[in-house]
């Protein structure tokens, strides 16, 4: 299977609402694309990091790398007027697809 043993969908909250309110076809009244916590029989994840796109594939073919330690910085200026302090966290990550054929998708759904 080109998509691997456990393919899933990924899309944003707007696309989720669209899929949950779109009937599969005119002969399936009341059967929506997103139903019973799956889309067409596959699981899904919702993230605002995917734009208005739908991705489908085996996400075990995505590698996430981190090459720096977590840096915490105190910002005494942003909330100074109210006596508060803001703590900011910084780190470096990158993402790479190790097998592009494990993915497919649609762009600009909404």
Give an account of the 3D structure:
By secondary structure, the protein is mostly beta strands. The chain is built from 1 helix and 10 strands; from the N terminus they run βαβββββββββ. The chain has one helix at 13-20, and strands at 8-11, 34-35, 38-39, 43-46, 54-57, 62-66, 71-75, 86-90, 93-97, 103-106. The strands form 4 sheets. It has a 4-stranded mixed beta sheet with strand order 4-1-5-10. The protein has a two-stranded antiparallel ribbon with strand order 2-3. It has a two-stranded antiparallel sheet with strand order 6-9. β2 (34-35) and β3 (38-39) form a beta hairpin. The longest helix is centred in the N-terminal third of the chain and has 8 residues, at 13-20. The model has no long low-confidence stretch (mean pLDDT 89).
Tags for this model:
110 residues, mainly beta, four-stranded mixed sheet, two-stranded antiparallel ribbon, 1 helix, 10 strands, 36% strand
Compose a concise summary of this entry.
By secondary structure, the protein is mainly beta. The chain is built from 1 helix and 10 strands. The chain is 7% helix and 36% strand.
Write down the Rg.
Answer: 20 Å
Q: Which structural class do you get from the secondary structure elements?
A: mainly beta
* Sequence of strands across the biggest β-sheet: 4-1-5-10
Task: Tell me what portion of residues adopts beta-strand conformation.
Answer: 35-45%
Count of helical regions: 1
Low-pLDDT windows of residues = none
Mean pLDDT level: 89
Shape: flat
Distance between the termini: 29 Å
Order of helices and strands: EHEEEEEEEEE
Give the helix proportion (percent range). Answer: under 10%
The description of the largest β-sheet is: 4 strands, mixed
